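User: Teach me something about this protein's shape.
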Amino acid sequence: MDNSFLAIALLALSTVLIIAEVFLPSGGILAIGTFCSLFTAFYFAWLAWWEASPAYFFGFTGFAIVLLPSTLVAAFAVLPYTRFGRRILLDGPAEADVVPFAAEEARLKTYLNRHAVTVTPLTPNGFIMIDNERINASSEGMIVDPHMTVEIVQVKGTRVIVREVSPEDLENRKTQANLNDLDPENSLDFDLPDA
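Assistant: First, the predicted structure itself:
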C-alpha cells in the first residue's frame, strides 16, 4: 500500500474513533486509539510527502488540525439530541430549585415604599406589622423602637429592609400626597378670560 493512502486512511480512522469516543463509554480506550492512529497517520504522511512535496505534508497537517477539533465539537453538539445523550446528560434544575423563594420575594416586593409599624425593637432584626401581617424585618443598621413608623425600602431575598420615618417626614409626605390629589381643572388660581 502507498504511504499517502495509509496516511489518509488512518486520519479517517482517527476521526471515526474520536466520534465513537463521544458516543460510546469506553473509558478512554477509543481516545488512545485515536491518538495512536493520528500519530501513525502523521508518520505515513511524513514518509509520503516530506521529501517529495513538503507542501502536501503541511497541507495534510493543517487539515488534520482543523478536522479533528471541529469533528469533536460537532459530536458534542449532536450528543444532546441523541437517545444516548439524553440519558447521560441531566436536565437543568427547575426554576423553583434555583430560586426557591421567588414567590415569597415577589409578594414582599409589593410592600416596597409602604409604611409599617414596628412590633418589636429592630436591633437590627425584629418584626413589623403591615396589612395585619407580621413580617420579619431588618433596619438599615440603626435600632428602631417598637410602635414606630417605618418605610420598607428594600427586599433582599426574603429579607425586608426598613428605614425609620420621622413624624415630620410622615406629615410632609401626607401633605405632598394631598397636593398631588388636587384637580388641576379646579385650581385655586384666578381664571383669566379667554382673549
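Now, about its shape. The chain has two domains: 3-88, 102-166. The chain has a mean pLDDT of 85. If you'd like, I can walk through any region in more detail.
User: That's plenty for now, thanks!
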